[in-house]
From TrEMBL:
<keyword id="KW-0472">Membrane</keyword>
<keyword id="KW-0975">Bacterial flagellum</keyword>
<dbReference type="InterPro" id="IPR002191">
    <property type="entry name" value="Bac_export_3"/>
</dbReference>
<keyword id="KW-1003">Cell membrane</keyword>
<keyword id="KW-0812">Transmembrane</keyword>
<protein>
    <recommendedName>
        <fullName>Flagellar biosynthetic protein FliQ</fullName>
    </recommendedName>
</protein>
<keyword id="KW-0282">Flagellum</keyword>
<dbReference type="Pfam" id="PF01313">
    <property type="entry name" value="Bac_export_3"/>
</dbReference>
<keyword id="KW-0966">Cell projection</keyword>
<keyword id="KW-1133">Transmembrane helix</keyword>
<dbReference type="GO" id="GO:0044780">
    <property type="term" value="P:bacterial-type flagellum assembly"/>
</dbReference>
<feature type="transmembrane region" description="Helical">
    <location>
        <begin position="12"/>
        <end position="35"/>
    </location>
</feature>
<comment type="function">
    <text>Role in flagellar biosynthesis.</text>
</comment>
<dbReference type="GO" id="GO:0009425">
    <property type="term" value="C:bacterial-type flagellum basal body"/>
</dbReference>
<dbReference type="GO" id="GO:0005886">
    <property type="term" value="C:plasma membrane"/>
</dbReference>
<dbReference type="GO" id="GO:0009306">
    <property type="term" value="P:protein secretion"/>
</dbReference>
<feature type="transmembrane region" description="Helical">
    <location>
        <begin position="55"/>
        <end position="77"/>
    </location>
</feature>
Length: 89
């Protein structure tokens, strides 16, 4: 197994990781920013006010994008498992 092959596999895995986690992270970031602006304007600094909306947003995104995420990960794992017999020695 050549170093170039291992680096290519690692790069594909990291790209997949970023692609699958991006929707959840982006939505939670936007919700957190909106809640932080709201807290700064109203001067209400309650910890649950920032935690609960982010949790709800993350669950909604996982419910909507979850099937796509799972399909993408399963396809990648299937490709990796099918590649095992063809790996260079």
């Amino acid at each position: 197994m050549s170093p170039q092959f291992v680096l290519t596999l690692g790069q594909e895995a990291l790209t997949l990781l970023l692609m699958v986690s991006a929707p959840v992270l982006a939505i939670v970031l936007v919700v957190g920013l909106v809640i932080s602006i709201f807290q700064a304007i109203t001067q209400i600094h309650e910890a649950t006010l920032s935690f609960v909306p982010k949790l709800i947003a993350a669950l909604l995104v996982l419910a909507l994008a979850g099937p796509w995420m799972l399909t993408t990960l399963v396809d990648y794992i299937r490709r990796m498992i099918e590649m095992i017999p063809q790996l260079p020695q």
